[in-house]
Fold these 4 entries.
Entry 1:
Amino acid sequence: MATAPDDRHPGLDPGSRTTAPDDGHPGLDPGSRTTRPLISVILPTFNRPGYLREAAASILGQTVEDLELLIVDDCSTDETDAVIADLCREDRRVAGLRTESNGGCNRARNLALDRAKGRCIAFLDDDDVAVPGRFESCLAALEARPSSGFASCGYGFIDARGTRLPGSAPEFDAGVE
């Protein structure tokens, strides 16, 4: 998780958030957000509707709820757009974006970065899930070192049945870079 370059995180005190007008993200009620979210989570996707709902749920179920989830459809040709529309209707923190042409996940991430309003930026791929407490752990690491601008936590590999695979990093060893 990285802090936004224009807003260093003085203790990440939720009371210090600045007011930011909503610029009409799809899925966000313009009158529903009066303060800047603490975290913008960017989730690019392409033709993976089966994974997308679980990935989004792992973000929306985090202990840190002050976030926006920007899902970027990289011109999927299946029902991904319908899943994104459902997620936008189900949770006001979700915004759906779509690239004009398929350009890969980095181009999709950049589109969302241009629209992100959070004080911190986090990424999740459409075939990944965030374990509970991910953001809480990263924010604690950032608060412990206010001069840092980046925190990372462990990851794991699982198969389609959810079985943990070799090659995983230690769970939640949040570190600050």
Entry 2:
Amino acid sequence: MKQNEQIKISLRKTNMIRPLIYVSIFIALGLDLIFNFSFSNTTISHTIIITLGLFSLIIFVGIAIILLKHLLDNKSGLIISKRGIVDNSSLLSIGFISWSDISDIKISNINNQKSVIFIFNNPQDYIKSVSNKLKRKVMEMNYKDTGYPISITTRSLKTSYRNLQELLTTQMNNYKS
């Protein structure tokens, strides 16, 4: 890899359409609860129904906005360079991962899904260095559940998990040698 060369792996945006459809259904259900729910045949309070509808709208409109932003974004899902990896493959992607922080890259089966996992030199220090509280919490839970703070599934990337692992391992070895 030349000094300024980057390898970019595109996002598989068709995989975002199904979640967007599901979110749209929940938005419609939330609107239906607010505007069309019949209270004559129920003992449930009007306030509870409206609150559930508003809660549904707030949560699922937020998710829809994030999905649409990700769908319309032209960023590559993964960018591999001499410095490391930029992960934009999911809604909770970590961003930049330096090669110097990684000791190994493997394939693991997490929740019945093949994932490329990163073995960090100091995983606890890496987790603590993440400023976004939500991302840090997700990394802590991943580390507690799987032993790996970061994993990348290829579901949203235009590559296979095996090709990704080989590419990342090769680039990491090239950089570290």
Entry 3:
Amino acid sequence: MKFKDTTIAFKLTTAMGGLTGLLVTVVLLALTLMGDMKNDSATITQHWLPSIHLVEGLRADLASLRALESQHILNTEETAMERIAQQAADVIAYIQSTQTEYANLLTDTHEQETVGTMETQWKAYLTMHNTLLAMSANREKFGARKLLEGEAKVLFDTLGASVQKVSVASRAGAQDASERTDASFATARVSMLVALAAGIVIASVATIWVTRSVTRPIRAVVDHAHDIAEGDLAMDIAARTDNETGQMLHALEHMRANLADIVAKVRNGAEAVATASAEIAQGNNDLSARTEHQASALQETAASMEELGATVKQNADSARQANQLAMNASTVAAQGGEVVGEVVQTMKGINEASRK
């Protein structure tokens, strides 16, 4: 299956997975570099700085011991010499404690060898120190002074050179650890900036790619939907992918085909309705003509009925007049009968009178 046919969810997951992978890589790189910086910082704070502090303290204590030796030789009072000897013993104890503490900080073989040489020189110098104090305590001041400025000075200078060498090594180690920390920080900064730039580029490319792969098919779906809404059912909707947008285009094409079939059926039905309507209209025209003919006949019949009504009314008037005349004649006849009756009575009276 081609990548363009994959689902939108798969494309988004792939893009987010790439960005997440880049982010995880950057985080792991940053953690690694931060771990290196932490280790270098711990080395500086837990090893080199204490080492430098102890070595500088050791140099100061050796100088103090050298001064106490000179004071012991210069003093002649027993009490003062005892006090100086006690102070020297305290300094020696502190120097030995410092050497032990410094030895516990050593991790490098070269450093251990250098410190081993320094301890051997210290033991030789400590023997010389005890000899000096013993000669000074026995009032052998001249011999003690000569030893102090001769063989003891050589041992002190040699020991001092070893201590200086250890101090330089400690400072160099601290400087190296500091430079490694700076390098780790610079590498982390550059890596973060490069990763950030790469992330921006990848995110931009992924955004454009996903947007185009999603919006273009959706825009095509929208355009086809507008065409269908405007009544264009003759177009052919082609789906070039099988993902969600391709399925939408397939469904839209199926809908367009069904709408075209429905419209064709509606058009055929409309044509049939139009034909039937024309036939109905023709029948209505015929019916209207017949209705008009019947209405004309009815008008003629109504006119005849009006004439008949007028004749009937005239006959009724004549009948009323004849009836009136008859009534008048009957009245006259009645009156004539009364007159005849009276005449008859008169005649009867005349007849009876003539009989008499």
Entry 4:
Amino acid sequence: MSISKNTKQTSLTCFFLLAALVCASAGPYNFLMVPDRDSNKNIYIRKNQTVAFYSNPTPDDGHIESYYWSLPGTSEGFSDDQSPGLVTYTSDGEMFEVTLQIEHIDGNNQNCANPPNTVAYVVFPKLEFKRIGSWKIVDPMVPHKDVRIGVLLNDSVDFRAKFPTGHLPQSSEISWSGEQTGTGDSINVAFNAVGAKEMRMNVRGSETNSASITVANPTGLGEAAWLAPRPWYYFAAPALRDEARAWASGENNEGDARRHAYWNAIMTTDWNSADAEGLATAHEVSGLSTAQHNSVPMDLENNTAGRAIGSPGATRASLKAAVVGALNSGGLIILDNPTNSNEVGLLQPSNQ
């Protein structure tokens, strides 16, 4: 569609009604009306969320000839309708500017194009976390990953909202829900119960970001104390441990996941699942004082996956093949940052 280059202007009044879609899925539609956008025209959403744009321009004379909406970041990209209606933001990014240019015929039958008008800035907030030192973005929507924060019981984690420069809401417009509730651009959360937890960040009442958290708490005896009443494992336990270490090496990566899974698989095969779990958990308990906290839930989950693979009479070759299969299908867990400085690594499936 061509836009006239005629610089002659006549008075034109435009009214823009905007609605941000609360849920990302297609209808039924539940709209959060936002006629009270701030002076910077910000709308806060998350990736794959839908926004509806409507216009009702009224020229003082003449009639509207054409519309051109620029919609970067959406699957549509642009629209030449008076009102594009529902558009979905599918692109990665921090902020996208929505503009509308209107061309109309004035009372003198002259073609007049108004300059593009900024209708709104569609902003993707980021959610960051920190346990001991460094901030890191954690958001399963951008890009989509099945990531989790790993912590130990009674750990505290800081969460904060991050926005592009010049597009910050009021601190009172940011709220938190999930494991703990609060208002403001940051919150400190203590995790006092084991299991799967969640923290959600809401901007102006619309959920923009979320974080999943796994809280672990291995308890019981350490390795030496666990082995003391089981002398029949004195020689077998180190031998199986060394066998697993010889087959796979590494820390917080695919090799680490393979080693833990294979170790538990061969203990289950040679002994039984209960004793395999007992020694594997005792190993984690023994290392708690020096362990990276987010690596403990990773190890525990890989141990569990390995015991599910082990079976009486299974050959070593079949166990190794099953562990590799679990690794390739995402059945094991690794950290997205194996060096894990300041424990910024996020738990994620081994095929991501």
